Amino acid sequence: MSRLTVLAGPTAVGKGTVSAHIREAHPEVWFSVSATTRPPRPGEIDGVHYRFLDDEQFDRMITGGELLEHAVVHGRNRYGTPRRPVEEQIAGGGSPLLEIDLQGARQVREAMPDALFVFLAPPSWDELVNRLIGRGTESTEEQERRLATARTELAAEPEFDVTIVNHDVRSAAEELVDLMGISRSG
Ligand code: 5GP
Predict the structure, then answer these.
(1) H-type helices in the chain, by residue range?
(2) Ligand 1 atom 19: residue of nearest CA
(3) Which atom from ligand 1 is nearest to the alpha carbon of 8?
(4) Ligand 1 center to 99 CA (angstroms)
(5) Has residue 185 been placed in a domain?
(6) Domain range holding 29?
(7) Is residue 113 in a domain?
(8) 8 within 8 A of 101, measured Cβ to Cβ
(9) pTM of the prediction?
(10) Do residues 99 and 31 lie in contact, with contact meaning Cβ atoms separated by under 8 Å?
(11) What CA–CA distance (Å, rounded) separates 143 from 74?
(12) If we measure between CA atoms, which residue out of 109, 161, 127 comes closest to residue 14?
């Protein structure tokens, strides 16, 4: 069965790392490429990691109805899921995966209630803080902003169909792929 899977969870829980593992070990999984107004980080490629847009281009996608969901994340930049590629995947029998924030996940649930909603949880709050500080890519101010977001995001776990605890990246990734039913169908 072709089904959309949405992976969400608090900031710095390791969604990106789990996704990276799946990209490498399971090339059969199709990932949505989000649009964002955030500037690229070193090494990020337009059209691969994100579609990097300015505010005007992002606005045009919204008014054109081209986004399945969109949200301001961490009170700063806008992120959104281009609708058409996801719909094409589902129509073609694929099983697309979205890695998005909680606000976006809620919008997708309104639009596509049959999707599978997976919450990636940290082993503990302290572990989440360690991961956020340890990543070292954000300023102190940005880290505080993201921790505040993470606190409210953790409380949303009961809204999801399934929780995967990210004790270990590989196990979490395999658990997700198993849930998607992809490894069995090839
Ligand atoms: P980053 O800037 O670190 O790449 O991503 C920041 C946050 O934006 C992550 O929590 C990520 O899940 C979320 N995000 C990425 N793409 C989308 C999207 O298309 N829609 C929404 N709502 N959130 C997204």
Answers:
(1) 15-25, 55-63, 83-91, 102-111, 125-135, 140-154, 169-180, 182-185
(2) 80
(3) 12
(4) 7
(5) no
(6) 5-179
(7) yes
(8) yes
(9) 0.91
(10) yes
(11) 10
(12) 127
* 144 in any annotated domain: yes
Q: With CA atoms as reference, report the closest residue to 32 among 91, 95, 103, 77.
A: 95
d(CA 38, CA 129): 23
110-157 pLDDT per residue, tens: 999 999 999 999 999 999 888 877 767 778 888 888 788 888 889 999
**13-25 b/e (C-beta count within 10 Å ≥ 16 → b):** bbbebbbebbeee
pLDDT at 184: 44
Asked if residue 129 is part of any domain, the answer here is yes
How far away, in angstroms, is 171 Cα from ligand 1 center? 22
Please report where in the chains the tokens 């399971």 appear, as a residue.
26
* Domain total of the chain: 1
Task: State the CATH number of the domain containing residue 55.
Answer: 3.40.50.300
